[in-house]
């Protein structure tokens, strides 16, 4: 007997056994209202193994996908890919993610607070944030159309290549922001991979890590300088001092001079500067940023048109002009004393105290105030700036 | 819309059991209720009989099952498995009956009165059904009923009874083989 035949016989017997009056009984009970209450009919959804394993496997896959997606998302959007210090006198710190979106904005001093006040920079692309910050700095007179001023930009990342990549990108953003406003101000820029060496100095002197690194590298180039004193100066003041002391800025950091100066006919000059300043990036100059970061004393190029006797801060001059506590430690004895030009040294050695524009405005030297920013003419001239100890008593900081 | 194929007991050909019938029953369509009863009463009866091993209890459960179908039709969710839904109600009702009558769920080891199949006129078929209930285990009987009477595939039986497919296949083949042997002995 075939299986099918067997099944048909079983089926026919069973179906034939169904009581004929059952349906009538059912309809009678329905008519009488003898109907059971509605109940939830739970059907089997598969074997126990499948019921347990399938959801477990699905949960595992979901978990793995979630973790992978989450990590990728976190890496791209939430993790800090680089931290950018912007120093003029206002100091601002931007934390950006891999997509170059701003994750966090922090003002590192009161002037920085003034700059970013009312700004919504979070989640914006870094070029937009830079544009807004530069715009605000220009509007408030912190960044001026002066080749001797400057913006210090420091890109911090533990990976040197990433730091350099971000630095180059950020410099372009700053260049564009300045060009758009027809402001010619150099963008001094550096990348930082190991910030531990200067972190303590930065905290102690209440400056950004970028500025701390910058002034310490300056001191390495010119040992007559005092890092603590430099930390109190604005970037413009430091740049002016660098110029007067004839220090090559490229020995300390990259310097990008990309301001749009057609109206002043300075294009050619700037182009020349650009070409010259790009040399460090190509590795042909004595000091690359990464070398500087390592704290190695950069080697100056031989005779790059520098005057033999560069102006310098003399140890003798500093104590007279700067009655800073612990000054003996700050002024370092130097064999350059013989080269020192005390007239300039006095002026440069005085770390001016940048303050807010409205009476507490950033203190630029008198020349700048008079020539470029008459509206800030109420700021004290450099000559009028009291020694550091007196400034400290005013309570301003930087 | 799920359509199940049910074997017709009298001629062996099949006719569809339309899921739409349940929706119509939910709307109070008694004609649809009758159609559904005609299409599935054999399956329900054979299945509950294999559990209860008592014609009268099986008849009671058959009625209970269709009354529950009638009252729960509105809750039926279209999944393409109307017969599985019906047989689930039947199974629950059968086990409920067992509890009501004070019997354990498994009558495997219990001595029960043999079912009277004297109403089956065809001798060969009567012997066949007697041997089936006499020699097959409960699970073998249920698998054979679901496959032979309800027309369910082995995969569907495995899903419905919540046991592995291989178990269904082996039990089915063992049951058929055993049944054939017993018939031959006769």
Q: Counting H and I runs of at least 4 residues, what is the number of helices of chain B?
A: 8
Helix content of chain B: 55-70%
End-to-end C-alpha gap of chain A: 103 Å
- Chain pair forming the biggest interface: A-B, 39 and 59 residues
Number of helices of chain A: 17
Distance between the termini of chain B: 46 Å
Order of helices and strands of chain A, N to C? HHHEEEHHEHEHHHHEHHHHHHH
Radius of gyration of chain A: 36 Å
**Main sheet: strand order of chain A:** 3-2-1-4-5-6
Topology pattern of chain B, helix = H, strand = E:
EEHHHHHHHH
- How large a portion of the residues of chain A is in β-strands, by DSSP E? 5-15%
The total strand number of chain B stands at: 2
Strand percentage of chain B, roughly?
A: 5-15%
* Shape verdict of chain B: globular
Overall mean pLDDT of chain A:
69
Summarize the structure.
The complex is a heterodimer of chains A (398) and B (186). By secondary structure, chain A is of the alpha+beta class.
Brief descriptors of the model:
heterodimer; A: 398 residues; six-stranded mixed sheet; rod-shaped; disordered C terminus; B: 186 residues; two-stranded antiparallel ribbon; disordered N terminus
Description:
- The complex is a heterodimer of chains A (398) and B (186).
- In chain A, strand 2 (91-96) and strand 3 form a beta hairpin.
- Chain A has 17 helices and 6 strands.
- Chain A has helices spanning 3-17, 22-31, 48-78, 110-116, 126-139, 160-180, 196-205, 209-221, 227-231, 235-244, 267-282, 289-293, 317-321, 327-330, 342-349, 366-371, 388-394; strands spanning 82-87, 91-96, 102-107, 151-156, 187-192, 254-256.
- In chain A, helix 5 (126-139) crosses helix 6 and helix 7 (196-205) crosses helix 8 (209-221).
- Chain A is of the alpha+beta class and 398 residues long.
- Helix content of chain A is 47%, strand content 8%.
- In chain A, strands 3-2-1-4-5-6 form a 6-stranded mixed sheet, with helices on both faces.
- Chain B has 186 residues and is mainly α.
- Chain B has 8 helices and 2 strands; from the N terminus they run E-E-H-H-H-H-H-H-H-H.
- In chain B, strands 1-2 form a two-stranded antiparallel ribbon.
- In chain B, helix 2 packs antiparallel against helix 3 (55-72), helix 2 crosses helix 4 and helix 6 (138-148) crosses helix 8.
- Mean pLDDT of chain B is 85; it is low at 1-15.
């Amino acid at each position: 007997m075939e299986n099918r035949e067997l099944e048909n016989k079983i089926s026919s017997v069973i179906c034939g056994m169904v009581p004929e009056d059952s349906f009538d009984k059912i309809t009678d009970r329905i008519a009488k209202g003898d109907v059971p209450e509605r109940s939830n009919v739970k059907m089997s959804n598969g074997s126990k193994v499948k019921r347990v394993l399938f959801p477990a496997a699905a949960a595992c896959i979901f978990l793995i996908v979630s973790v992978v997606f989450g990590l990728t998302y976190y890496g791209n959007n939430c993790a800090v890919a680089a931290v950018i210090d912007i120093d003029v006198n206002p100091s601002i710190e931007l934390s950006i993610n891999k997509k170059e979106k701003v994750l966090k904005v922090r003002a590192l001093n009161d002037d920085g607070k003034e700059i970013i006040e009312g700004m919504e920079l979070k989640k914006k692309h870094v070029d937009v944030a830079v544009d807004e910050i530069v715009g605000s700095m220009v509007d408030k007179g912190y960044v001026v159309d002066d080749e001797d001023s400057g913006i210090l930009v420091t890109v911090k990342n533990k990976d040197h290549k990433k730091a350099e990549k971000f630095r180059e990108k950020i410099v372009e953003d700053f260049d564009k922001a300045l060009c758009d406003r027809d402001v010619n101000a150099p963008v001094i820029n550096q990348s930082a991979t190991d910030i531990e060496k200067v972190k303590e100095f930065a905290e102690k002197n209440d400056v950004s890590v970028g500025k701390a690194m910058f002034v310490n590298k300056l001191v390495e180039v010119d040992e007559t300088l005092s890092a603590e004193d430099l930390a109190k100066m604005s970037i413009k003041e430091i740049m002016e001092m660098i110029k007067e002391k004839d220090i090559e800025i490229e020995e300390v950091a990259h310097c990008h001079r990309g301001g749009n100066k057609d109206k002043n006919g300075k294009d050619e000059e700037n182009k020349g500067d650009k070409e010259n300043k790009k040399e460090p990036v190509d590795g042909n100059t004595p000091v690359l940023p990464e070398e500087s970061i390592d704290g190695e004393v950069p080697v100056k190029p031989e005779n790059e048109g520098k005057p033999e006797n560069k102006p310098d801060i003399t140890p003798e001059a500093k104590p007279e002009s700067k009655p800073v506590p612990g000054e003996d430690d700050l002024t370092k004895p130097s064999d350059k004393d013989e080269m020192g030009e005390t007239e300039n040294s006095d002026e440069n050695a005085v770390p001016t105290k940048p303050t807010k524009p409205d009476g507490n405005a950033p203190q630029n030297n008198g020349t700048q105030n008079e020539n470029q920013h008459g509206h800030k003419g109420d700021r004290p001239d450099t000559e009028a700036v009291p020694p550091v100890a007196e400034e400290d008593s005013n309570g301003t900081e930087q | 819309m799920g359509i199940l194929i049910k074997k017709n007991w009298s001629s062996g050909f099949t006719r569809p059991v339309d899921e739409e019938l349940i929706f119509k029953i939910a709307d109070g369509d008694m004609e649809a209720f009758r159609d559904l009863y005609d299409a599935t009463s054999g399956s329900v009866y054979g299945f509950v009989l294999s559990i209860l091993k008592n014609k009268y209890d099986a008849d009671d459960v058959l009625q209970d099952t269709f009354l529950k179908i009638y009252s729960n039709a509105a809750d039926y969710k279209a999944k393409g498995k109307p017969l599985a839904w019906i047989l689930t109600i039947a199974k629950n009702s059968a086990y409920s009956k067992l509890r009501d009558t004070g019997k354990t769920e498994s009558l495997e080891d219990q001595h029960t009165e043999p079912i009277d199949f004297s109403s089956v006129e065809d001798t060969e078929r009567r012997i066949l059904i007697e041997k089936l209930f006499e020699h097959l285990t409960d699970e073998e009987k249920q698998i054979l009923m679901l496959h032979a009477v309800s027309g369910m595939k082995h995969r569907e039986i495995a899903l419905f009874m919540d046991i592995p497919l291989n178990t269904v296949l082996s039990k089915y083949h063992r049951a058929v083989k055993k049944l054939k042997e017993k018939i031959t002995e006769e």
